[in-house]
Amino acid sequence: MITEAGRVVGIEDKALWVETIRRSTCGSCAAQKGCGQGLMNKFTDGRRNQLRVLLGSLSVDTFHLNDEVEISIPERALIGGAMMVYLLPLITMIAGMGLVSNYASGDVAAALGALGGFLLGMALVRLHAMYIQNKPAYQATVVAKFTPAATNSVAITVSPHSE
């Protein structure tokens, strides 16, 4: 499980919208100047991300806007999602290019086949995202809720979570 702290910015019936702040260790990396990720982090450092987070067994009534919460994301979902988003369109693009190249000659036909395969891959990624949208095994869930820092105490409500 990967955990992250965030702030509640929206409330639904069975989920919360949580805003997280992206953190990075790129500032201490030796390959910072030659790394594309380091360049992107310079433009987006401190940018806030919003996630839809399932409540699990917790009640929506216990949460209010601006509450501080801790969320967890299953590692399987993170790795599988990265593979789906990056690898599937690449594979379908290459397959589309190869398939069209077998039946038509020329670079234009191969490029159109690659474009068609890429678009098919992106459509499959979107269908997969819609399919797993409410499946707890693939979604971030609320692990804990923190009380405001003004009271100098932290109350944690832990939800049972099974993989």
TrEMBL record:
InterPro entries assigned to the protein according to its UniProt record, in alphabetical order: RseC (IPR026268), SigmaE_reg_RseC_MucC (IPR007359)
Which superkingdom, per the lineage?
Answer: Bacteria
Specify whether Transmembrane helix is a keyword of the entry. yes
> Which spans are transmembrane here?
85-104, 110-129
Answer yes or no on keyword Membrane: yes
Print the keywords alphabetically: Membrane, Transmembrane, Transmembrane helix
A Pfam match: RseC_MucC
The record ties this protein, via PANTHER family, to: PROTEIN RSEC (PTHR35867:SF1)
Q: What is this protein called?
A: SoxR reducing system RseC family protein
Q: Which organism is it from?
A: Zhongshania aquimaris
